[in-house]
UniProtKB/TrEMBL annotation:
Keyword presence, Acyltransferase: no
Cofactor list: FAD
GO cellular component: cytosol
Alphabetized Pfam families for the sequence: GIDA (PF01134), GIDA_C_1st (PF21680), SAM_GIDA_C (PF13932)
Organism, as annotated: Sparus aurata
Keyword field: FAD, Flavoprotein, tRNA processing
Annotated GO MF terms: flavin adenine dinucleotide binding
Name the UniProt record assigns to this protein: Mitochondrial tRNA translation optimization 1
Domain tRNA uridine 5-carboxymethylaminomethyl modification enzyme C-terminal subdomain residues, every copy: 610-667
Gene name linked to the record: mto1
One GO process term, biological-process aspect: tRNA methylation
Family: Belongs to the MnmG family.
Record-linked Gene3D superfamilies: FAD/NAD(P)-binding domain, GidA associated domain, C-terminal subdomain
Length: 694
């Protein structure tokens, strides 16, 4: 992959502009509005599924722009990137191309909660995304602003009160028709920028907000509940004005780990990667914040900001007297700017300069671009189905910050899945869902549509009940085959690679399991490993791999004839070995938990390796029952208040408000359904109300 040469950025703009000014058609299968992380993944996914797709964005040269932090991945977020890549998305490969500092966060903990992360070169990332979109078949890019949606009467054979049939552009040109539309407006939906006591329309500095007509259509014409959220970004610092010797150096990993399962290495060599630096706030920073609160209208607004990436003003107000981390991160291989992560702020520019100079490493720092805040509209996501389609509007899909999330990775994951289902809707194919038992994308979507948001939503590993199985290293085994066989968004090339990896891992695990040697022989083969003298039994290679100090490379060196063919999977095999021993201890707990929340699926276990199978077999009968319950579809017009089953008034109110499509895990956890609810569908008297089991 890394041998290919990207076309120059100007060449890309000329080619796309030519295509944009002469649209070959006024009818598309899918129209995607917005060119951020959600929009680019949605457009590419829809085209891969087979839909003729149009991507509409305000400025072509900002497609794929990293509006805030030039980084990708992290704890929970890295899992999303790996899953998007497993489904043939763009951001993982773009991260491998543009990464300039790769690291695995949380490495001191178990592999399930490792967080693959990379600092990115802004220009390289943007160029890669633009190049990929330009070379995607069935995808056209148009520069323009969407004024409103075309809304007509619904198809009576489908659920919903409205139907979207296309878009109108702000320039007054002829409307463009489509079977489905994906809105990925980010922070641009009625966006406002804040700096000090001034505000102006916009979703990003230098760009205009989306048309007010679009918000009006969503709110008034479609009757959607709209909320208001806020976020912010820190000032960009001139690198040469910072004394990095006063900050703690953090180099990248000596062996970078790629995001994409198609890549064995990253484009930037380890010796060429740039370090990050860590410093901290001082009491002077807190003093400047408190003295300038009256000059900061953004922090005084009622709109909710991100809890897990707060502004420095919010941190000081919430945790007075504390010291806060500030990461100084490079913005590119040749960039002369630093990104001070942890210093998002919206005070006046002169006060921002005073504040950053209270930090020793930046006592002479100069600001290139001041920080600012953004407020924007979002659609309450409980109004969406698990396919990310608006429940009351046929053909309308939403993805990204418009659904109340924050972060590139969350946006990309939603964009891909919304694009897939928008294409399938346009091609008259059934919608596809991802369970929270099989992916972080499923966790993300289920959280949004089942629980909604009261603040910008961020992914963490703690949100996934089955994170020990939803690891970054096995996303390809969990999702790529499904993406090819059931969803239709994965190329044959990637599918072939996933099949090869699956079969090779299976062979390697069987080789480890059949390698049976006495403990005295193991002591001779691995003299530096402590093996108890009291043990004089036959031990398999898999058992040995469970020792913390034993690596697969050591075993392959001892028995090259049967293990050396699998060296490329050494880390993945080590992880599987560790989890084999862990599962011996926790299988009973998992079984009890599964029985309680009714949430495991057989398809989840089909991704597991041979070492998981004994534990999976114990749960097979329970899973079959649970699968049957998960397939219970709930009609959208059901009257929960008169439903003749034992449910509390509180539960009925939750169900009436959320109106879930199925009995998902979160709905079960929130509502604690009685057994009578699940049995009701089998009774003729209730079948017309609850619907039949699939």
């Amino acid at each position: 992959m890394f041998s290919k040469k990207l076309p120059p950025l100007q060449s890309f703009l000329v080619q796309v502009s030519r295509r944009a000014s002469h649209l070959a058609r006024q009818q598309y299968d899918v129209i995607v509005v917005g060119g951020g992380h959600a929009g680019t993944e949605a457009a590419a996914a829809a085209a891969r599924v087979g839909a003729e797709t149009l991507l509409v964005t305000q400025k072509i040269h900002t497609i794929g722009a990293l509006s805030c932090n030039p980084s990708l991945g992290g704890v929970g977020k890295g899992q999303l990137v790996k899953e998007v890549d497993a489904l043939d998305g763009l951001c993982g490969r773009a991260g491998d191309w543009a990464g300039i500092h790769f690291s695995i966060l949380n490495r001191r903990k178990g592999p399930a909660v490792w967080g693959p992360r990379a600092q990115l070169d802004r220009q390289l990332y943007r160029e890669f995304i633009q190049s990929e979109l330009l070379s995607t078949p069935r995808l056209t890019v148009l520069e323009g602003s969407v004024e409103e949606l075309l809304v007509t009467e619904p198809d009576p054979e489908e659920p919903g009160h409205h139907r979207v049939t296309g878009i109108c552009l702000a320039n007054g040109s002829q409307p463009i028709s489509a079977s489905s539309v994906v809105l990925t407006t980010g922070t641009f939906l009625s966006g406002s920028l804040f700096m000090g006591q001034t505000s102006s329309p916009g979703g990003r500095i230098g760009d205009a907000p989306s048309s007010a007509g679009l918000s009006q259509t969503l709110r008034e014409r479609l009757g959607l509940r709209i909320g208001r959220l806020r976020t912010g970004t820190p000032p960009r610092i001139v690198k040469d004005s910072v004394d990095l010797s006063l900050a703690e150096l953090f180099p990248s990993d000596s062996t970078p780990t790629p995001f994409s399962f198609l890549n064995t290495h990253t484009r930037c060599k380890p010796e060429d990667q740039l370090p990050c630096h860590l410093t901290h706030t001082t009491p002077g920073v807190e003093r400047v914040v408190m003295e300038s609160l009256h000059l900061n209208c953004h922090i005084q607004e009622d709109a909710k900001g991100p809890r897990y990436c707060p502004s420095i003003e919010s941190r000081v107000l919430r945790f007075p007297g504390r010291q806060h981390q500030v990461w100084l991160e490079p913005e590119g291989l040749t960039s002369d700017l630093l990104y001070p992560q942890g210093l998002s702020m919206t005070m006046p520019p002169d006060v921002q300069l005073r504040l950053i100079r209270e930090i020793p490493a930046m006592h002479r720092a100069e600001i290139h671009t001041p920080g600012y805040g953004v407020q924007y509209d979002f659609v309450c996501p409980t109004q969406l189905s698990p396919a990310l389609q608006v429940k009351n509007t046929q053909g309308l899909f939403l993805a990204g910050q418009i659904n109340g999330t924050t972060g590139y990775e969350e946006a990309a994951a939603q964009g891909l899945w919304a694009g897939v289902n928008a294409a399938r809707w346009a091609l008259s194919l059934p919608a596809v869902m991802l369970s929270r038992t099989e992916s972080y994308i499923g966790v993300l979507i289920d959280d949004l549509v089942s629980r909604g948001v009261t603040e910008p939503y961020r992914m963490f590993t703690s949100r996934a009940e089955f994170r020990t199985s939803l690891r970054p290293d096995n996303a390809d085994l969990r999702l790529t085959l499904k993406g090819f066989e059931e969803v239709g968004c994965v190329s044959s090339l990637r599918h072939q690679e996933a099949v090869r990896v699956r079969d090779s891992l299976q062979d390697a695990l069987e080789a480890l399991q059949t390698l049976t040697v006495s403990t005295p022989t193991w002591r001779k083969k691995l003299p530096n490993i402590h093996i108890s003298e009291a043990k004089n039994t036959i031990v398999t290679g898999m058992n040995m791999l469970q020792y913390n100090d034993v690596s697969f490379e050591m075993l392959a060196s001892a028995y090259p004839e049967c293990l050396s063919p699998y060296m490329e999977f050494s880390q993945r095999l080590k992880i599987e070995g560790n989890y084999n021993s862990w599962l011996r201890y926790t299988s009973a707990l998992l079984l009890n938990f599964a029985t309680t929340v009714n949430s495991l699926s057989l398809k989840h276990f089909s991704c597991c390796s041979a070492v998981y199978r004994p534990h999976c077999d114990l749960q097979k009968k329970e899973i079959e029952r649970i699968q049957k319950e998960e397939k219970m579809s709930l009609p959208q017009d059901i009257d929960y208040f008169s439903l003749p089953v034992s449910l509390s008034q509180e539960v009925r109110e939750i169900l009436d408000r959320v109106r879930p499509s199925t009995v998902s895990l979160h709905i079960q956890c929130i509502c604690y359904f009685p057994k009578s609810f699940f049995l009701a569908a089998e009774e003729p008297i209730y079948q017309s109300t609850l619907g039949k089991m699939n």
